[in-house]
Structure formats: C-alpha cells, structure tokens
Amino acid sequence: MAEREAAPESVRVLEESGEGAGLMESWQDADAVILIDAVHSGAKPGTIHRLDAHAQPIAKRFFRFSTHAFGLAEAVELARALGRLPPRLIVYGVEGKSFEAGVGLSPEVEAAVDVVVERVLAEMG
User: Fold this and answer.
1) Tell me: the pLDDT tens digits for 54-81?
2) 56 within domain boundaries
C-alpha cells in the first residue's frame, strides 16, 4: 500500500480488525496514535470527522455498525477510564455509504480516504 511507504520511518502503520482489546494492546507505549475507521452518524457519505480523544469522549453512536461488541469507541473510553490513553490520540472517521458485507468503497468514501491520508501525513509532520 503506497500510504504505508509515505509514512516517516519513525511511524508504525498497522491494520487492525477493530476489536477493542487488540487496539488497546497495539497502542501500548505509543506517544501518539491516529486511528481511522468508518462511521455512521447520519452525515453525508464521505464526510470526514476528526475527534481528539483528550478533548472529547468518542461517541459510540458513530461506530454502531462495528462487528465487535467491544470496538474502537469502547476501547478509547476504557483506556481513558484506566488512565491508559496515549499522550495523543486522534480518531478520523469517514462517513460510510453502505455497510453491507462485500460492498466496496463508494466513490465518495474513496475520495474521503485520500483526503484523510493527506491529513494524517500532515499531522505526522
């Protein structure tokens, strides 16, 4: 994936299943974490949401189509409660169009993903 090669050498790029306990384990000892996931808030498909976990709770309602009972929002909020949030934790959510199994990315979501990659690379500076 070209996006992985674009990341600075000091950055570790992981693709996780979204299962909460695995997410918490993957960010252990990290100074900064940026998570990217699909969301469903009712906004227009392709809408990009940027959430700072230290500035606000991560709303479970955004991630209600997760296949995990303990997903991204729950992992962030449990880490907060346990005092295990990384010093910096940003969540990018891309508003999905269809959440049916086997459906690829819509053109709106595909375009938003490219924008999110650019924004994440800029944040890594």
Assistant:
1) 999 888 777 655 555 678 888 899 999 9
2) yes
Half-sphere CA count of 89, side-chain side, radius 13 A: 25
**Domain-embedded: residue 9:** no
Give yes or no for a contact between 115 and 88, defined as CB atoms under 8 angstroms apart: no
State pLDDT tens for residues 86-107: 999 999 999 988 877 777 888 9
Q: What is the dihedral of CA 108, 103, 19, 12, to 10 degrees?
A: -50
Would you state the pLDDT for residue 91? 93
Based on its alpha-carbon atoms, the radius of gyration of the chain, rounded to whole angstroms, reads: 14
- Residue ranges making up the domain that contains 72: 15-124
What is the DSSP annotation of 53-121? TTTS---GGGGTT-S-SS-HHHHHHHHHHTT---SEEEEEEEE-S---TT----HHHHHHHHHHHHHHH
